[in-house]
Amino acid sequence: MTESASPLDLENLKSGARWRGLYQMGELLPDVTYGRIFKAQHVGLMTDVIIRVFKVCDDTRARTCEAIRNAQNGGLVEFVEAVESDGRRVEIMQAAPAVTLREWIGRKNNNPAELVLIVKQLAHILGNLHQHGVVHLNVRPSTVYVRTTDGGLAVFLGGFDMAQLLEGVEGHISGPGRKGLRLNAL
Hints:
Order of helices and strands: EEEEHEEEHHEEEE
CATH class of the largest domain: Alpha Beta
Number of strands: 11
Distance between the termini: 47 Å
Number of helices: 3
Radius of gyration: 18 Å
Strand order of the largest sheet: 1-2-3-4-6-5
């Protein structure tokens, strides 16, 4: 009897390989949390993506990703798809369509009005995540992306590798509403 290949095609999740016939795998990126992260390109759409593979022991991550998808409002780096099998999960996310906040700040003379606009957009994005029960836990200049458009600045939030879903919490998580809510510090 011939053993079938993994539905995740893990043997082709490596630099230079074609994964699932759809993604040309690029360089392996450093990962500060767990698993492996690759740059890749969807060969049909010619779009850049980030592919993360890691071990899972329950459906917590799947529920968190679904809550992030539900919170999508144009300000989040988009989840393309996720597949899971035999205790492994592969998540594909759009590559950020902009430069990191760290790069943006280093490139130009920033005026206070632009910085206020960035903070307001970021607060709106985080508020929307919180309304869906998601706590990001990794907001920093390298996970916030800024793009200059004809209409001004557009802010995107990525870096969901440590995001957690707080189940049983409805509405915005702030002020008196978080009384009794305990998060484990990292």
